[in-house]
Design brief:
The chain is α+β, with helices and mostly antiparallel strands. 24% of the residues lie in helices and 25% in strands. Strands 1, 2, 9, 10, 11, 12, 21 and 22 form an eight-stranded mixed β-sheet that branches. Strands 6-7-5-15-16-17-14-19 form an eight-stranded mixed β-sheet, with helices on both faces. A hairpin with a 5-residue loop joins strand 16 and strand 17. Helix 1 crosses helix 8 and helix 2 packs across helix 8.
Length: 410
């Protein structure tokens, strides 16, 4: 067994957008940082084909403060980094029709409530009627009632962004190690002292251990968690379809739908990316099995919304990236009671990419100052096992989302 001669102040486990951007921010703040990634940078949910949505529209209310913190940072780094981070602000439309069994006044009331609360929480939103929506997206189907428009929504090449932050982190002095799979947290007297790799090497931890390896976080934590701290998290493999655009149609916005599991993006080569919440079965090893039913459901929703897609041809279907999902649909960010110098963040639920830079900002503040920002309290793991007093929101805050899906992922 070998051990590094000196410990980094901060050891980060996970080389996705969260780990890479946090390594950059902490290195910029003067910390010595070592990031450990089991595979390659962006090999997990932060990488893959196509683009991710950077949206606030129809997001769980508890996540909106992270969206308001993240949006200016995406714009900042797109401008600041040489080559940018692959971010494009396209605006977003969340579409509404009147589904079977619903009533027009109910749907309009939902649209009004959604726009009102998003505006109140700092997300510029406005209601568009059917004609105004079709003016922006003339290829939409005729069953449309209207939409909620969010001008600041956009898309991002997630692989490119993650690699860009990794590159900048290295320039800022962080050490990023790939092929370094962590198998165990070593600890004594209530603090993490190091992590053990599959090779047997022990990487020592100086001040803080930060676990951001998405679906790999809970297996590392389980040996040190108290029974009541085990968190209700599942894994899913969201499906993305890519189809041709034979007639050269143009999609101008990031599109979501209130009553369909649908997210539509037109990536820069004209290809259409269809996703929004369907997932596939997977093996214990994390390999995806494929699913004709998931493909059929996604395609049916897409064609119902954009009829011209019926003339498209398949290019590929991809469901190779594992997501971790909490039972209530929002991330978990906390410290285990047994390890006071360890912070973990995971269960990004497929839509965590867009709000990653907001979390990075607050995690950096926490690590540098030693004080947990109030903005992170709502994401505490304690919401699953502690009662909440009057006026507190960590466990039982009301949520507003027009659907419980992996809409952003995808």
């Amino acid at each position: 067994m070998t051990t590094q001669a000196t410990a980094s102040e901060i050891v980060i486990v996970g080389g996705g957008i969260y780990g890479a951007s946090l390594a950059y921010e902490l290195a910029q703040a003067g910390k010595t940082v070592t990031l450990l990634e089991a595979d390659e940078i962006a090999a997990g949910a932060s990488g893959g084909s196509g683009e991710r949505g950077v949206r606030a529209n129809s997001r769980d209310l508890r996540e909106l403060p992270m969206a308001t913190a993240s949006f200016p940072l995406w714009a900042k780094y797109q401008e600041q980094f040489e080559g940018g981070v692959g971010y494009r602000r396209t605006g977003g439309l969340h579409l509404f029709n009147i589904p079977h069994g619903a009533h027009e006044h109910e749907v309009r009331g939902t649209m009004e409530a959604m726009a009102m609360v998003q505006n109140a929480l700092g997300i510029h939103s406005r209601i568009l009627n059917r004609d105004e929506t079709l003016e922006r997206e003339p290829e939409l189907s005729g069953d449309l009632l209207g939409s909620v428009y969010c001008r600041d929504d956009g898309v991002c090449d997630h692989t490119f962004a993650t690699l860009a932050f990794a590159k900048q982190a290295r320039k800022a002095g962080a050490s990023l190690r790939t092929g370094a799979r962590v198998t165990e947290i070593l600890h004594t007297k209530g603090r993490a002292t190091g992590v053990k790799l599959t090779s047997g090497e022990v990487v020592p931890v100086g001040d803080e251990l930060i676990l951001l390896a998405n679906s790999g976080v809970l297996p590392l934590l389980k040996p040190v968690l108290q029974p009541q701290e085990i968190m209700p998290v599942i894994t899913q493999m969201p499906q993305m379809m890519f189809v041709t655009n034979p007639n050269g149609k143009k999609i101008n916005h990031l599109l979501g739908h209130a009553h369909r599991k649908l997210s539509v993006k037109q990536i820069q080569d004209g290809t259409l990316m269809l996703s929004g919440g369907q997932s596939v079965a997977h093996t214990p090893e994390g390999r995806w099995k494929g699913s004709l039913s998931s493909t059929a459901l996604s395609l049916t929703d897409a064609i119902a919304t954009l009829p011209f897609i019926d003339e498209s041809a398949f290019l590929k279907v991809d469901a190779s990236r594992v997501e971790s999902c909490a039972v209530d649909g929002i991330p978990i960010v906390d410290t285990p009671s047994a390890l006071h110098n360890t912070i973990y963040g995971f269960a990004w639920t497929g839509h965590g990419f867009a709000i990653a830079l907001g979390f990075t900002k607050y995690l950096t503040d926490w690590i540098v100052s030693g004080e947990k920002p109030q903005a992170l309290e709502v994401f505490s793991g304690k919401r699953f096992h502690e009662s909440i007093g009057p006026g507190e929101t960590a466990a039982g805050s009301q949520t507003f989302s027009t659907r419980d899906s992996l809409e952003e992922a995808v």
